[in-house]
Structure formats: C-alpha cells, structure tokens
C-alpha cells in the first residue's frame, strides 16, 4: 500500500498503513496556524479490497462539530467526485470504501487545482470583453490575478458614467474549493456572447473577478490561511503587503475602480444549505442597503431551489459587525451592496443527492444562476 499527498493541494499524514483494514491518518495544520480540516490524498492498493480509513485528532480541528453527517468524496480520475460511506465518532472520521481501481483519491471536497485555475484564467482572457490583470505577487511568488469583463469604466468617458462596477472574489479560504467551482460556472455564462442575460449585464456593468484569492494556501493544502497562516477574511480593514498581499493588492485596485456590488464566495463546513450573509451589523447600514439585500435574496429564491433564506448565520445587531471581514468592510467603505455567499461542504439538505452531495456541477450552476440576481438589482445600484 502507498498513501501520498505530495501534490497540488494535498494534505495528509500517515500514522499507520500496513493493512487496508486499518489505515490510520491525521491532517496537517495550515502552516503558521492551528487551523486544519482540509484533506486530500491518494491511496494505491489492489482493487476490490475494502479500505477502512480512520482520520483521527479531529476534536482539535477548526470545526469539530461539522464532521457530524459529513461524507467524504472520492475519485478515480480526479474529474468525477462521488460520496463514500463515512462516519464520525469520538473525534475520528471513519471512511469505509471498496475501490474498483488500484488508485483512488479521497478529499474533503472536490479539489480545484492550481493548474485548473491557470487554465480558467487563460481561457477567460481569450474571450471577448475579458482581459487579465496582474495585481501583484503572493508571499510564495504566485500571481494575484483579476479578470476584467466588460468595456469601459466610469472614469474613462462620459459615455460610461452609468456603468456599474461589480467585484466578485472567491476562495479567500483555500479549502473552500466550491467557491472557485462557482466562479467557473459564473464566468462561463458571463462570457457567453450568445446569452442575452450576459449581454444585458455587460451593457450595464464592468465585472472584476478574482477566482482565487489565496493561491498559496490552495497549493499548500491549507484549509483557511495563506502561506504564513493569515486568515485573509480578517484582513480587510488594514491589509499589509508583507502579511496579506492578496488582500492588499485587490483592495488597492478596488479603490481605483470603486465598487457598486461586492460578492465574496465561500463554503461553510457545518450548515448544509446555500445562504447569504449581508452587512446588517455595520454602523453604516441603511434602509437602502436593506432593500437591495432583500431584492437580491428574493430574486435568488425565485431563480433556483438550491437557495434558501431560513438557515444561515444569525443576523448581527447594527454596530456589532466585525469590520475586518470583507463583506462588512467593503459595504462600509464603498456604501455598496455586499454579500458573503456560503455553500455547503456536505449537501444541500433542501435538495439532497446521496451519490454526490453538494458538488462542482451544482456549484457551477449556482454561479450561473447568481448572475440573474445580479441583473435583478443592477438598475437600483449606485
């Protein structure tokens, strides 16, 4: 038997793997922090022999309560990821599976590789109305890239003064790979020149999309932090170039363009639903923003049964928001509509799929549907 995680996004430590019936593993912490929950590894062993895998030490993981009801994903070809029988008990996740092939991959959620990220950027920038913007470099020397979609900016000419500016960021927390899957689906629709929804949107707005806010953490197999253990979604009040260059460079560009709508895409380990979190906890929150939030949420409810507004984070009292969080900080800084969109690691309990759970395909479809809600509020943005 051979178990490996020495590849892009891989994370596991082998405690004992002498026999398939008793494989003992643990998860490595993010570098420079105590966060851990993401795993991704390969097992090579003769097919049709049941593997009993125990991942232990999970009482100390980032979200220990989230393991209840969780089912791991597996793949033979790293394209199709299906759920496998998993059970959480006394701080350990037990995976029991009988592979049909010699090599199989297991992961916390379907990975989104750095190569696929680069492929997405390359494809997108070759499409009409899309250009690639180099914002700076990460601590590990990787590119921070934004995609600009649509012609014109408010400052370019009088003809474009009514163009709205939409910013979309994803994967501040690198283990939340469903976020980049969503962005892939969103870009495929937004860049479809034959889609009337996209044509209408690009007549009204310029989009700036950062598909991966945390490429270093993604490659390192981190759950939540960048190369040195910094949680980027707590850096938006005053980002430092030597500590969180990812946020520093993106915010610098936002200050040039302005922001009328901001969407930050995430995944939630515990809550088995898709939901939005707004900026109602900000001291600067107004009735105008409340009305826009309701319009956006109501539109999503009509557009897709994958979305709901009953389950999610508790509403914050006005004036109690954490202003280092991206959604709160951007809503306050730009007086704009801002949302955090959360998707499940488990399944959408409103529309369960035992075979696949919440998946890359469903994430991509939600990204495409999200554009309809953006279109719904576009004329009311300022």
Question: How would you describe what is shown here?
Answer:
By secondary structure, this protein is α+β, with helices and mostly antiparallel strands. The protein has two domains: 2-107, Immunoglobulin-like, CATH 2.60.40.3120; 114-380, Zn peptidases (Aminopeptidase, 3-Layer(aba) Sandwich). It is 25% helix and 23% strand. It has eight helices and 17 strands. The protein has helices spanning 114-125, 178-190, 196-204, 215-220, 245-257, 287-303, 326-334, 360-377; strands spanning 2-4, 13-16, 23-26, 40-44, 51-55, 73-75, 82-83, 86-89, 92-97, 103-107, 130-137, 143-149, 164-170, 205-210, 261-268, 275-277, 337-344. Strands 11-12-14-13-15-17-16 form a seven-stranded mixed β-sheet, sandwiched between helices. A five-stranded antiparallel β-sheet has the order 1-4-10-6-7, with no helix packed on it. Strand 8 and strand 9 (92-97) form a beta hairpin. Helix 3 (196-204) crosses helix 8 (360-377). It is globular. The model is unreliable at 154-160 (pLDDT under 50).
């Amino acid at each position: 038997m051979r178990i490996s995680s020495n590849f892009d996004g891989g994370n596991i430590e082998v405690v004992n793997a002498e026999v398939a019936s008793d494989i003992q593993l643990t998860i490595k912490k993010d570098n420079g922090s105590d966060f851990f929950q993401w795993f991704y590894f390969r097992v090579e062993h003769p097919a049709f022999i049941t593997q009993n895998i125990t991942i232990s030490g999970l009482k100390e993981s980032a979200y220990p309560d989230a393991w209840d009801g969780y089912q791991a994903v597996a793949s033979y070809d790293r394209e199709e990821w299906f759920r496998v029988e998993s059970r959480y008990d006394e701080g350990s996740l037990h995976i029991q599976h009988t592979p049909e092939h010699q090599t199989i991959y297991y992961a916390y959620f379907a990975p989104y590789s750095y190569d696929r990220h680069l492929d997405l950027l390359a494809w997108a920038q070759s499409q009409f109305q899309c250009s690639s913007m180099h914002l700076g470099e990460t601590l590990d020397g990787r590119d921070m890239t934004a995609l600009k979609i649509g012609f014109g900016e408010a400052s370019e000419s009088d003809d474009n003064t009514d163009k709205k500016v939409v910013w979309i960021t994803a994967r501040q927390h690198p283990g939340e790979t469903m976020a980049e899957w969503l962005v892939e689906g969103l870009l495929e629709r937004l860049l479809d020149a034959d889609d009337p929804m996209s044509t209408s949107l690009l007549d009204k707005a310029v989009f700036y999309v950062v598909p991966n806010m945390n490429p270093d953490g993604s490659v390192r197999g981190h759950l939540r932090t960048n190369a040195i253990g910094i949680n980027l979604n707590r850096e938006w009040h005053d980002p430092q170039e030597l500590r969180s260059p990812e946020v520093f460079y993106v915010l610098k560009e936002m200050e040039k363009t302005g922001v009328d709508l901001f969407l930050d895409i995430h995944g939630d380990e515990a809550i088995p639903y898709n939901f939005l979190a707004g900026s109602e906890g900000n001291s600067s929150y107004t009735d105008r923003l409340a009305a826009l939030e309701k319009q956006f949420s109501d539109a999503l409810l009509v557009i897709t049964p994958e979305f709901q507004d009953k389950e999610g984070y508790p509403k914050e009292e006005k004036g109690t928001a954490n202003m280092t969080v991206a959604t709160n900080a951007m809503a306050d800084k730009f007086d704009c509509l801002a949302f955090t969109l959360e998707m499940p690691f488990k399944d959408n309990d409103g529309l369960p799929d035992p075979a696949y759970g919440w998946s890359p395909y469903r994430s991509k479809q939600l990204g495409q549907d999200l554009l309809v809600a953006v279109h719904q509020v576009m004329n009311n943005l300022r």
